[in-house]
Amino acid sequence: MEKRNITEILKQITLFSSLSEQELSELATMTHISDYDKDSIIFTQGEMSKNVMILIDGVVSIYKHDSKGNEVVIGYFNRYALLAEAATLRKTPLPSSARFQTDGAILKISLDGFERFLLSHTSLSYAIIQSLLEKIELLQQNIHFNLAATSKEKVLNFYQKNPKLALDLKQYEIASILSMTPETLSRNISKLLQEEKLIQASTGYKIP
């Protein structure tokens, strides 16, 4: 992909929104794009990454294997998500594996070049810190929610907070995220749809 196209893609990523044209062009010199087919493995647990990775197209699943070798999906990510940035920047082994659920592409920035770039761009460093803090907060919320919420509450919460992702994923993939069977997910979706119809019939109010 031509450099000018990479620069245009960088402009669309919130992380780099404060950079000037010249700074974006500089960043583009240390950047390349890798295309992937559906089911391609991006990285596996224990590997070391030499690139900062940003998903720019497609849907990616992040997963681990339990003690019995079963695949446990941690979550799904779509466009402009940073992937494994904490381990990459700390230069430690990646804590999980990643696979494309669709065809897609990842923008990769050389870690060595990115580190040098960070030293002279404090606003970018702050944006990365904010991204990490948001992920920590989200993880804490998910842990609390998964421990305390009912199946119906989990389903409703997922669809309310992830409308775009819900359209990209199959029901069995959503069920995996919510740690429930596809049958349980389907049953709770039916209950929620029925409740919405009852509310509309009795009050005339349509749930957004």
UniProtKB/TrEMBL annotation:
Keywords: DNA-binding, Transcription, Transcription regulation
InterPro entries assigned: cNMP-bd_dom, cNMP-bd_dom_sf, Env_Response_Regulators, HTH_CRP, RmlC-like_jellyroll, WH-like_DNA-bd_sf
Membrane-spanning ranges: none
Keyword Transcription regulation annotated: yes
Domain Cyclic nucleotide-binding: 15-135
Highest taxon, organism lineage: Bacteria
Keyword match Transcription regulation: yes
Pfam families, per database record: cNMP_binding, HTH_Crp_2
Name of the protein this chain belongs to: Crp/Fnr family transcriptional regulator
